[in-house]
Design goal:
By secondary structure, the protein is mainly α. It is built from 19 helices and four strands. The radius of gyration is 31 Å and the shape is elongated.
Amino acid sequence: MSRRWSVGLGNIVAVARREFVTRATTRSFVISTALLVVAAAILGLAPVVIGYIDRNTSQSIEVHVGAADLHGDPVSTLDALLNAPALQGGAGATDGSGAGTTPGGPATRDYRVSLAPDLDAARRQVEDGKLDVLVDIERDASGDAVFTIYVNDPAMSRTPDLVRQAAASIAIADRLGRAGLSGAQQAALFAPPQVTVRSPDTSQPASTAQGVTGEIAGFAVTFGLVLFLFMAVILYGTWVAMSVVEEKSNRVMEVILAAATPFQLLSGKVLGVGATALVQYVIVLGAALLALVVQGQVGMLVLGETGGLSIPQGLTPGLLVVFSVYFVLGFLLYAVLFAAAGSLVSRQEDVSQVVTPMTLVSTAGYLVGVYGSIGILDPKAPWLVVLSWVPFLSPYMMLARVNDGSAAPVEVVGTVLLLALTIVGAVWVAARIYSAGVLMYGQRPGVRRMWRAIREAR
């Protein structure tokens, strides 16, 4: 018995090694890995890339003040409102032109606001394209401030809309100034209130502005992990199915079956392709993490700015452990079924047809998991809790529930055990389909054909 197990294990390892070496040394694998590494590095350095592209694309805005005794400085007010993200990021005070600077670096504002002494000359500059926006402030018969925006862009485009919103703040400040309120009083009047969002369950912590930012980061992390799993299942599951069809199409399968059992072939293919997928994903993920680590230094060299992304707040060690378990088990479950489906066809053109059921189920789990991670669906909803126990869906849905904090540890353990047991059953079913399907040639796949393969296999 021990010798039989040893031979069987040796056959599985041999098939897995062959699959790994064959796929990892192909030109398509090397090229795709290189392209994915470049894409991951670009995504990790996206803020630096965007900043480099937009470094000289700030829009110029001039303000002509025709209103007598306008309260406040519309130039500095408009500059502060339009460049609020830059100010929050640590930009310094505005200079005389309203352009603003960043300590240790060049101007990084999206808008450069300055005063226009001559309305007609500034309007001609807008018409000629030398000036992006001109804002003229006058007073109507009632003494209220009225604004005219001269711009070549459509009236509902982003910049006119932002200027329109800022104009409302300037008009309100002018009205309050005319009513006798000082600048300090106006600042106190418009100071944002403290807002706390609480769950009806008072034992849950409250969310402040920083807490909401952390929740958004957690949603983004979960979305990325669910997408990561979905791509691996679809891409590498299809690899498994294609590998089976390739060997059937050139009649190599009959020779291989003389040395190894269908179960050994199935296990070796799943493990070999899985190892290939893991290697590629580790390389790509390493490139993305490296880009995140050096983002601050690259930003300083390219843009003269400090900063960069740290590890996302929601990416905790516990979530990574849970994701790793669900990733491995979820991939194995789908991979054995993809291999069994691939054994039912003889042409690569038919692979997409037989893997469609697994693809649809995986897509459904992915969509529900994504919607749960970004808050469109409530992870605590009873129907979603029930579906999270379905082995084909739990790898996606449990990630959203774990991130939300609604999944108890016993549920995580329970779904993992159920998923592992389902893999055992799926391997038994897939091996029977595989043992009969690998010798089928020129027969159309279908439910009846699959059921017959399960019954007739030995």
